[in-house]
Amino acid sequence: MELLSVNVGRPKAVDYTNAPAGLTGIDKRPVDGPVRVAAPVPGGSSGVAGDAVCDLRFHGGADRAVHAFAREDMESWERELGRPLPPGSFGENLTTRGLDVNGALIGERWRIGPDLVLEVTGGRIPCRTFAGFVQEDAWVRRLNQSAAGPGALLRVIEPGEIRAGDPITVIHRPAHPITITRLHHAATTDRSQLPGTLVAAEWMESGLLALARNYAEKYGE
Q: Which DSSP helix (H) or strand (E) runs through 188?
């Protein structure tokens, strides 16, 4: 398991069809050399040095400090879309190989390189800006219904510098069955499954946790 690339985005004006106006950092590109990853300061954005997060309502912060996507899943989308997808095409900070990103458990921990430790908190919920960036019809629905899943949102447990080629090691897996894919499908396509995801509540990203708790409270589950 290895890190293929570290990707960062600069703020740019949104000019994608049907995307909301504003600034975005979704257009992420690989960078050379070591990159520092650390927990964002309170109210901060990305945990990856040099990376822009422009909409803090849905991106960035301690529970969403880093986004990772598997090269294998990207290659599956390349076949479906009929076009190449370079690293960063899914707005991810980390492009991995050999790691089952979407099969990761909520609360699973990865060591990347000698020092960095990240913890899985959930999956990215696709938005209209992402759909506009990819420029594919019904993109949000297609991604939500895909068996592949949305990639991992991660919090920083131990900071460190990383670079392309660094090894990735899974160093902890919690004792529950809630994977990124399972949580994502519960949040987007079958909300009746949300109460069951609360066994992973202590590790979940705050937005997904609130969604699951609110559903369980509303429907008495």
A: helix 180-188
